[in-house]
């Protein structure tokens, strides 16, 4: 055995022994999670037991990142623990998660990022269908896009909260990376047709203008459909889509990260029908309807200012009523169980036409 082989053997023996310990500890953890499930069932009943606890998962992930001393990067260890919790939760109860499809899109990536790969994620054709599936109990949770950093708010998603009585249980932030994909191996040569959905065009327009101004742009319903069309049309056709779509359809990535904003990202909401406890770093979302009058928004926001509560987002939506009312979706820091926040909610309640608490949930960790 050479010196190198001897040194490698010693290190690999060490790795084998560490793997045995990790393996044993993982199964110890899984057994604990099974016991947790038994306790939940014992006290809540097997029909009403709430297995997924977003606040606890956020705390576990935050703690993992805080105590991490490397050499593994914080987000890498957190990603590993995300998957460990995902398999443990699946042992307690396999999670069914509805997402705004089709398969392979960024919302699916957001769902996997949030729930890990042991959750069973099912695509639906519209936000309405996702909400309906969760409301009817067909899925435990749903994942829908709410805001993109370059395109702004997805107002259709916001409006669904008026129609459905579901709560927000969490949020996910996903970095969006678009690539140029094609079936042949011509690289960036001879591109005549580009298949892409409208929102992808909005996010990559400058890059496409400067590289392929003369190529025809054909709008399709999703990045996955763009890939299918690029394959079907063959020579000269490319799709703009994600790495996941490239893998799914076995396409070559011929240009990477063509997003006009290098930090292009989308925020997604996790919807469900449970109240989430405090995690220590939470957000609350409400929908308020007020009578139209000058200074109405000012008066509304005054309450937050008075109690020193930071807003993280506000959107105006038509209130959909014959009276002259305006509706606002407001996100702010803090949990509804907090006395401070309860004060503001009480004040708003007495001054608004309607106040709907959409939920308090942990600030996105990963
Ligand atoms: C184990 C629990 O159930 C689930 C699994 C978790 C985990 O694996 O750490 C954490 C929270 C829950 O989603 C728990 O509630 O503590």
Automatic annotation (TrEMBL):
One of the record's GO cellular component terms: cytoplasm
Domain ACT: 285-362
SUPFAM superfamilies registered for this protein in UniProt: ACT-like, Chorismate mutase II, Periplasmic binding protein-like II
Pathway: Amino-acid biosynthesis; L-phenylalanine biosynthesis; phenylpyruvate from prephenate: step 1/1; Metabolic intermediate biosynthesis; prephenate biosynthesis; prephenate from chorismate: step 1/1
SMART domains in alphabetical order: CM_2
Enzyme Commission designation: 4.2.1.51, 5.4.99.5
Catalytic activity of the protein: chorismate = prephenate; prephenate + H(+) = 3-phenylpyruvate + CO2 + H2O
Domain Chorismate mutase: 2-96
InterPro entries: ACT-like_dom_sf (IPR045865), ACT_dom (IPR002912), Chor_mutase/pphenate_deHydtase (IPR008242), Chorismate_II_sf (IPR036263), CM_dom_sf (IPR036979), CM_II_prokaryot (IPR002701), G/b/e-P-prot_chorismate_mutase (IPR010957), Preph_deHydtase (IPR001086)
Source organism, top-level taxon: Bacteria
Keyword DNA repair: no
Function: Catalyzes the Claisen rearrangement of chorismate to prephenate and the decarboxylation/dehydration of prephenate to phenylpyruvate.
Name of this chain's protein: Bifunctional chorismate mutase/prephenate dehydratase
Species the sequence originates in: Amphritea opalescens
Phylogenetic lineage: Bacteria, Pseudomonadati, Pseudomonadota, Gammaproteobacteria, Oceanospirillales
């Amino acid at each position: 055995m050479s010196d190198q082989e001897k040194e490698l053997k010693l290190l690999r023996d060490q790795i084998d022994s560490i793997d045995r310990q990790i393996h044993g500890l993982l199964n110890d953890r899984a057994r604990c999670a099974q016991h947790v499930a038994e306790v939940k069932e014992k006290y809540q009943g097997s029909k009403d037991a709430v297995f997924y606890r977003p606040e606890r998962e956020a705390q576990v992930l935050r703690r993992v990142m805080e105590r991490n001393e490397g050499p593994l990067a914080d987000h890498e260890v957190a990603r590993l623990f995300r998957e460990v919790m995902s398999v443990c939760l699946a042992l307690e109860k396999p999670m069914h998660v509805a997402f705004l499809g089709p398969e392979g899109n960024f919302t699916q990536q957001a769902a996997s990022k949030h729930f890990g790969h042991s959750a069973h994620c099912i695509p639906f054709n519209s936000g309405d269908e996702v909400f309906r599936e969760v409301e009817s109990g067909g899925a435990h949770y749903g994942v829908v896009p709410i805001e993109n950093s370059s395109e702004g708010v997805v107002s259709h998603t916001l409006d669904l909260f008026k129609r459905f009585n579901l709560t927000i249980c969490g949020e996910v932030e996903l970095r969006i990376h678009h690539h140029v994909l094609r079936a042949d191996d011509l690289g960036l040569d001879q591109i005549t047709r580009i298949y892409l959905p409208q929102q992808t065009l909005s996010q990559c327009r400058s890059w496409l203008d400067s590289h392929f101004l003369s190529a025809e742009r054909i709008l399709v319903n999703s990045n996955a459909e763009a890939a299918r069309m690029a394959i079907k049309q063959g020579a000269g056709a490319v799709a703009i889509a994600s790495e996941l779509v490239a893998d799914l359809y076995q396409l070559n990535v011929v240009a990477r990260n063509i997003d006009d904003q290098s930090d292009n990202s989308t925020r997604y909401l996790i919807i469900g029908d449970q109240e989430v406890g405090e995690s220590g770093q939470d957000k609350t979302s409400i929908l308020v309807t007020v009578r139209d009058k000058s200074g109405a928004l000012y008066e509304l926001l005054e309450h937050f200012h008075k109690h020193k509560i930071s807003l993280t987002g506000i959107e105006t939506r038509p209130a959909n009523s014959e009276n002259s009312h305006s509706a606002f979706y407001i996100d702010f820091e803090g949990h509804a169980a907090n006395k401070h926040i309860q004060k503001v909610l009480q004040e708003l309640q007495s001054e608004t036409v309607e106040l709907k608490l959409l939920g308090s949930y942990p600030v996105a960790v990963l």
